[in-house]
Amino acid sequence: MPPFNPPPFEPSRRDSFTSSLWHATAIPAAGSHALSGDQVADVAVVGAGYTGLCAAIELARCGADVAVLDAREPGFGASGRNGGQVIPAFKYDPDGIAAVYGDEAGERVLDMVSRTADAVFDLVDEFGIACDPIRTGWIQCAHGAAGRAAVQARHRQWRRRGAPVELLEADALRRMTGTDFYPLGVLFRNAGTVQPLSYARGLARAAAGLGVRIFSEALAQRIEPAGRGWRVPAGQGGVTARQVVIAVNGYGTSGLWPGLCESVVPLYSMQIATDPLPGTLREAVMPEVQALADTRRLVCYCRKTRDHRFVIGSRGPFAARPEAADARALAAAACRMYPVLRGTGFPYRWAGRVAMTVDHIPHLHQLAPGVFAALGYNGRGVGMATMMGRILAAACRGARRGELPYPVSDLRRIPMHGLHRLGVHALVMAYRMLDWRPG
Question: C-alpha angle 40/409/121, rounded to 5°?
Answer without folding.
Answer: 70
